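Chapter review: from sequence to fold.
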Amino acid sequence: MPKLLQINSTCNVGSTGKIAEGIGRLAIEAGWDSIIAYGRSYSPSKSQIIKIGSSISVYNHILVSRIFDKHGLGSIGATERFIKLIDTKLKPDIIHLHNIHGYYLNYSILFQYLRSRNIPIVWTMHDCWPFTGHCAYFDRVSCCKWEIMCENCPQLLAYPRSWGRDNSKYNFLSKKSSFLLHDRMFVVPVSYWLDSLLKKSFLKNIPRRVIHNGIDIKLFSPNSDLSFIEKYNLQGKNIILGVASPWSERKGLGDFFKLRELLPVHQYAIVLVGLSPSQIRDLPQGIVGIQRTSSIKELANIYSSASVFVNTTYEENYPTVNLEAISCGTPVITYNTGGSPESVTSHTGFVIKQGDIKALVNAIKYISQKGKLFYSLKCRSYAEANFDQSKCFEQYIDLYNELLIIQKKYTLRV
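The token string follows.
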């Protein structure tokens, strides 16, 4: 049977880890042998899982990033050992890359190896890091240097943080030199927004195809469990929900504080999931703070209990939290950020201008006046038609098979 090797910073944890897991499960159902190699955290998987490096190599890589601004160029020994494993034991027919950043992998060494082997490569891009000299997103500072040449980076303190050294020009040129594998690499942006950026980047001539993320709509489905509402004494209130991990300035945490000031406490409850303990301690009165939950059942219950899901993100690609909320029958209000609007229609919520708190309040009030029942069936129907991961990820299996056919024809010609 054909063998698939996926590489990601996490396995079955977080949005990208769950996406890799979903693709692996579908590949197994389609008769593939599935392996997921990861660098940081993991949860049990249906695929064979392989840890790249160790905690020590991760910490060393963090120092390389912090001190020298060379993110993705640490983990030399860990990457060399992993490549040896690929070459001698794993021997995959397809290598599928996800987030190769995250302090666990040396992209230069990896791509040197990929260049020397006739293995088709699929690269799902979940952010902008592959074509910039430093950052994963640049919207908030309106930077377009990545279109020509990154240098004098305005975001050294953004992920992946540098303590002062600006190595963005070197990083840009190093990535450009490493990643241009035209003959056997296929790029998959997960939003049309990211696809539009790739058209302006040094990766513009690499074959690509947009494949939206999907979720398990059986797990994320509406339910009538009132335990969450009762636990936090939210009976009779319109529940405004926000979910992120981690919560940061780019996720718009401060905008929820502004909302709290403008919406009456007796009528509207604000619930934020994914906060750190220190963030919970610092919350203003009238906001319920909850730490990240690893239970999909619990998260689906929270989505189902909410009157509206609000996504105040200022930098985003194609957030799965929107999909999860809509799949649970909850309408979504999102800022017009990145690919976030691509999952929301007039039947499932609103798209508003970034930072327009007045418009956000008006949209929340409109949905509360209409009532959640006005949206819930429409949301669920839309999710079933568009977010089912089995349908979304089937496109990857089709792509794998296409690439194997192309590879076979190329081999025969040679």
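Two observations follow directly from the output. The longest strand covers residues 3-8. The chain has 14 helices and twelve strands.
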